[in-house]
Amino acid sequence: MIQEDSEILNHHDQQQDYRVLQLSAPAIGPLVRPGQFIELLVPHLNDAVLRRPFSVYKADKQSVTILYKVVGKGTAAMQGLAPGEKVDIIGPLGNGFPDNQEELTPVLIGGGYGAAALYLQAQALSQKGVVFFGGRSGVDILCVDEFEALGWEVRVATEDGSLGNRGLVTDSFDRWLAERPSSSDGTPRIELFACGPEGMLRAFGDRAATGGYKAWLSMDRHMACGMGACLTCVIKKRATESSWQWARCCKEGPVFDSTEIVWDE
């Protein structure tokens, strides 16, 4: 984990309430692995002392880029940040996505701005597969062109039908999976990597358990410190078949094997 005084290189609208922020990060950028995040101390927010966590959307030897949605006081304050300003960041943080098993087709699943956490994974994997994006409407579907440029097939579902297929992203995935051949034991030859709302993650975790394939889920929790001290981001993680223990998303996660997660009823 490195603390870096970072200069804003670029800051622009993506679409509607979504924005892209590129930060200089010669110390952090080269170390970032797919699925990791940074914590940013938002300037001009005098009544807030805690940092904000953001998945790393893109990274290179000199910078990191985040894609965020304006949803609260912190992200609203970030809208006014301009190139040349300095912000304090720490990272890279957390355990990210693993490499895929080469004999399996990788499947990426992003809900809303969860797509941002998957871009580096799509870039890193040697084998290309299918990306499923879901959102309430077309304005919530992000980065389609970027993923297609990497050689991935992209399938889109929106609840209002304004872009792609009408319905939930799970519906789109189920139709696609039903058309695929399975192995001799009936198990689909796929491996999932997902980031998005908890309901979506749980739905895909359930499907993986029933179908007998692996799913890696990036859990979205409020990671106030990012270093495992504040315990605001804990989830229940399976310890044995009949017991569980607390796990910190910022340290043990944010990416977990779906079979490890004990979902609250």
Q: Separation of termini?
A: 35 Å
- Proportion of beta-strand residues: 35-45%
CATH C-level class of the largest domain is Alpha Beta
Query: Unreliable runs, pLDDT <50, ≥5 residues?
Result: none
How large is the radius of gyration? 18 Å
Q: Supply the CATH superfamily name of the largest domain.
A: Nucleotide-binding domain of ferredoxin-NADP reductase (FNR) module
Describe the structure.
The chain has 265 residues and is an alpha/beta fold. The protein folds into 2 domains: 2-93, Beta Barrel (Elongation Factor Tu (Ef-tu), domain 3), CATH 2.40.30.10; 105-262, Rossmann fold (3-Layer(aba) Sandwich), CATH 3.40.50. 16% of the residues lie in helices and 37% in strands. The chain is built from 5 helices and 17 strands. A 7-stranded antiparallel beta sheet has the order 4-3-7-1-2-6-5, with no helix packed on it. A 7-stranded mixed beta sheet has the order 11-10-9-8-12-13-16. A 3-stranded antiparallel beta sheet has the order 15-14-17, with no helix packed on it. 41% of the residues are buried.
